[in-house]
Amino acid sequence: MSRSLLRSVLELRTPITRLPPPFLLPIRAATAAPTPARTLTTTTQNIDSAAPPTSPAPAQTSIPPTTAPPSNPNSNSAPPAPARREATAASDASVKELLPLLRAQPGHYITAHIHGFPYLVTPGDQVRLPFRMPGVLPGDVLRLDRASVLGSRDYMLKGAPWVDDSLFECRAVVLGTESEPLRVKVKTKRRNRRAQRVTSKHKYTVLRISELKILEP
User: Fold this and answer.
1) Among 8, 210, 15, which Cα is nearest to 123's?
2) For residue 127, what are the CA distances in angstroms to 31, 120, 131, 153?
3) How confident is the prediction for the chain on average, in pLDDT?
4) How far apart are alpha carbons 71 and 79 in whole angstroms?
5) How far lies 166's CA from each of 15, 129, 137, 146, 171, in Å?
6) What one-character-per-residue DSSP string does 14-82 give?
7) Per-residue pLDDT tens for 27-63?
8) d(Cα 161, Cα 149) in Å, to the nearest integer?
9) Staple 127 to which of 21, 43, 115, 207, CB 3.0 to 4.6 Å?
10) How far apart are CA 78 and CA 84, in angstroms?
């Protein structure tokens, strides 16, 4: 007997357990099974009517007393107003006491600042400024009111940062403007045959200190 015939006989003997395809099944109405209702259970506390309701005690917060921070000598904080006033009064007293001694000594000098450049000068000195001062003409008299140091042979008054302009009077006369000889500089670059010629001719302003007086405080 061939194998195919034996296989067909065995299939006929075994019961058919497989279902037919879904398109051959009868149409049935889909009825959803009722879901049991959910019941909410609430838990209640038995409160004794005889006992009065107790309210939670309010939280007590204690505010610590404010204390001033310790003074740090290395800090850059400004001193309080009373200390500053005492220091100012002490400096004024020392200036009133020692300034007459500075006036009495000869050989006064001053460190004047002109356009941010400091110059230590005495009466009769000439100052050659490394720039051309704008807005001045030869013969003009300038008052130098910004100085950081004012001194004599044995005494010196330093400003913080400037000395009070009511303590001195310094005047300078504009002598004129000068210019240096024309300078030519040849600038070259590597692997480049082109050479560039740069010319420069700086101009200067010349001042002469005509007067330096130390005034009374």
Assistant:
1) 210
2) 114, 10, 11, 22
3) 76
4) 10
5) 129, 25, 27, 11, 14
6) S---SPPPGGGSPP----PPPPPPP----------SSSPPPPPPPPP-PPPPP-PPPP-TT--PPPPHH
7) 654 444 455 545 444 444 444 444 444 555 544 444 4
8) 9
9) 207
10) 9
Question: Which of 98, 193, 205, 116 is closest to 161 using CA atoms?
Answer: 116
Residue 159 forms beta bridges with which residues?
A: none
Q: What six digits make up the tokens of 104?
A: 């009495």
Q: Is 72 exposed, middle or buried (0-12, 13-18, 19+ CB in 10 A)?
A: exposed
Total-model pTM: 0.54
Q: Which two tokens stand for residue 31?
A: 């009825």
Contact assessment for residue 167 and residue 204, using Cβ atoms and an 8 Å cutoff: no
Which tokens hold the place of 141? 């008299």
Looking at the chain, the number of H-run helices and the number of E-run strands are 2, 10
Tokens of 45: 């506390």
- Enter the tokens of residue 130: 């490394």
